[in-house]
Amino acid sequence: MTYRRTILKGLASILPLGLLGDSAVCAKETPGKAPGGDYYRELGVKPFINAAGAYSALGGARMRPQVVDAMRYAATRKVKMRELHDAVGKRIAELVGSEAAMVTSGATAAMVLGTAACMTLGDEEKMRQLPDTTGIRNEIIIQKKHRYTYDRALTVAGGRLIEVESEEDVRSSVNARTAMMFFLKPTHIGDNIPADQYVTLARELGVPSFCDAATTTPPGSNVVAGVSDGFDLICYSGGKGLRGPYSAGLLLGREHLVRYARQNGAPNDISIGRGMKVSSEEYLGMLVALETSLSVSEEADFAYKRERFSHIIEQIADLPGVTARVFVSGSETNELYLDIDWDTGIIKLDRQQFIDALRAETPAVEVRLLLFSGGRIHLSATVMDDGQDVIAGQVIRKVLLEHS
Amino acid sequence: MVTPDYFSDLGVRPFINAIGPYSSLGGAEMWPEVIEAMDYAIKNKARMTDLHDAVGRRIAELTGAEAAMVTAGATCAIILGTAACITMGDEEKMDRLPDTSGMPNEVIILKSQRYLYDRSIRAPGATLVEAETAADIRAAINANTAMLFYLLNRPDDTAVAIPEYVAIAKEHGVPIMCDAATTVPPIANLKSTVAAGFDLICYSGGKGLRGPYSAGLLLGRPDLIQIARRNGSPNHRAYGRSMKVAPEEYLGMMVAVEKSMTFDEDAEYERQLAIVSAMGRNLSAMQGVDTVTRTPGVEAREPYIEVHWDAELYKTTPAEVKQALRDGDPSIEIRALFLSDGQVHLTATMLKEGEASIVTAGLKSILLASAYNQ
Fold this sequence. Notes:
The complex is a heterodimer.
Chain A: H1 2-14, H2 17-26, H3 39-43, E1 48-50, H4 65-75, H5 81-96, E2 100-104, H6 107-120, H7 124-129, E3 139-143, E4 160-164, H8 167-173, E5 178-184, H9 195-205, E6 209-212, H10 221-227, E7 233-237, E8 249-253, H11 255-263, H12 280-295, H13 298-316, E9 322-328, E10 336-342, H14 351-360, E11 364-366, E12 377-380, H15 388-402
Parallel strand pairs in A: 1-11, 3-4, 3-5, 5-6, 6-7
Antiparallel strand pairs in A: 2-8, 7-8, 9-10, 10-12
Helix pairs in contact in A: 2-13, 4-12, 5-12, 6-11, 13-15
Chain B: H1 6-10, E1 15-17, H2 32-43, H3 48-63, E2 67-71, H4 74-87, H5 91-96, E3 106-110, H6 119-122, E4 127-131, H7 134-140, E5 145-151, H8 162-172, E6 176-179, H9 188-195, E7 200-204, E8 216-220, H10 222-230, H11 247-262, H12 265-284, E9 289-294, E10 304-309, H13 318-327, E11 331-333, E12 344-347, H14 355-372
Parallel strand pairs in B: 1-11, 3-4, 3-5, 5-6, 6-7
Antiparallel strand pairs in B: 2-8, 7-8, 9-10, 10-12
């Protein structure tokens, strides 16, 4: 930490910070041993290299150094939580062009609190009563193509999902119990009703619209673009593409709805969301993560990842039957991936066996084989530190060779 | 990297905390060791499940509990523990919360222990059933009873003593949860509460234990802790997925418990007592002002002074004094509302060097102004 700070201070005196670029900063971010000891070794926690991506189960993203620094600043200086949240929210709203903004304990919390806001609309009795929705509007309109794992969050505060497939469905479903119209982006199978039409329809019907855009970063500029879509509320994950704190997220949108969402969350004691605590370092860290994401160039980010991938490829390029290819994902999220494949006639290993073998190594290497990657082996360098690339390449080489 | 002065840039004012480590004021000062451990976990990634397993085992060893988990705070511990008792691990039921139809969802609570946070017992879909005596509790238990609840900082031995309450729970095979959020220090309270036989115990992490602000502990029976974990983050479709806990919070919480176990609490108590006593002497020197030094019995062991004044002489109320100090420069927070039965209380837990005299000077000038304004 001290080492990195010194280096950066030296560079910063020569260059404006913006020109330093992300890779210059990240290159000095090496895993280190804290003065307190090597906790993971003492605890018997197996080290692993995350070549899969910023998944929650794998500890999320690598926070940017600026974020870590800001969190450390906030950890040792106490201020009133509400005052800090007001100031951070105001600044975030300015940055992204929304009426208002709040920091939540993740994108899921943003969905729960946004739903609770639309259900209770600031009525304190109703807020206390949740999740009992007697006399409270609790129907959430959702497009059939938008049903997904996390729609579970819409029911946590007491909401009930009403599926629709067309504009006519929406018109006939909206009634006095309708609380919110939900939208998910992006999906692999598209939408039943496109975003612009859905937003217009929600306005016409007087129903608040909510968009889950949790996974649509990087780049950070997608947040600004998302806000301009015109949804009344839109949420983002903080600890993934924006490289902010792990247990933080953003809820952006209309001033009154964000205010109601805050009333339904911590530290308000009567709220349904009192359990979703956000610390002052997370408030500040989230702001700095967003600021940095908006100022850092995507090219620097890509250059960093390309370099990691080239170090992995160097380790396996000479293996017969093995192909490795770097590509940019075609989806809204601009991500760089490394696709690794092999001739199963030469290397007797199917994809799942490959993943299991990588997990059994020390350090383990986590790669992704998911719906998102179309059943192929994909590596991500999003969470990879400088130096981990070579080790990951060596582990992969070892596993492939053992089955040749 | 030169760290900007973020709070000043944002226009967020510092304040003097003479009230204590409340959540709304940012909680307690973390131990330096906790901050170091959090730095380590930020730099070194681990699988969340592996890390939580290891940290949970270590906290259980340290506290004498059978099992432990780190939550997003004491409230989160109450919510996940309640969700565990309602669903008992049934996948279909867990996926349906807070809809509890067809599940046992009644939680028995002593009428005298109804409090602000019992709201969170209801969050995953429970209904509260009030009882006033041991006989009431026995009569209230039925097939729909999911859990019995006890609030440790408001004991009511005339209703039911803890050993009897725990015995009733065992007798009926119903889990009993204890909210012990604000009962440390002393850390001895934690061990004795674990030994009392509750099935689940909830602690705040960011207060007396001086761990991460948005962390807490749920201790207790391995089967229930396991189910509570399944109901929480990072499981995708869990009821409690939104109550995220970061890897640095897992590790920071463990180190906070370790540190709290070895820390010289008596020395810290004496340090705080000396500060509040000096504040008391300072204020009592004023005509018509009287102070009493107090030590709470069941709440966290935090000495404080109670400040009284002659209402004939000083025409102001505790609530007005609290507001005036808050509006002052620097802003000062003191305890003077329902939490202290309307009395003015001053504590030293969060006071920094030199702040005690600013607090007493501020209080004096407000009292004097009220005398002159008659």
